[in-house]
Amino acid sequence: MRVLVGVLTGHALVASHLHKMGRTSSSLCQNCDEEVRETVYHYLCQCPRFASIRFCTFGRGLLPRETLGSLELKDI
Fold first, then answer.
1. For position 44, what pLDDT does the model report?
2. Out of the domains of life, which is the source (predicted)?
């Protein structure tokens, strides 16, 4: 339940949130070379490192923001 609440609120153990709390020196994603902030949205929907997992789970490598509302919570 804690993980799901973190995903829904953005208060999860991702670099952007940890950086706001002063627990890490950078808010950038350490999983890819794109120099972008690691947010819950980036982690779940955009990060190239997890594209194959998204494809197996959702049938596509990238998830546009507008498709998030149609996802089942059990799949997240």
1. 87
2. Eukaryota
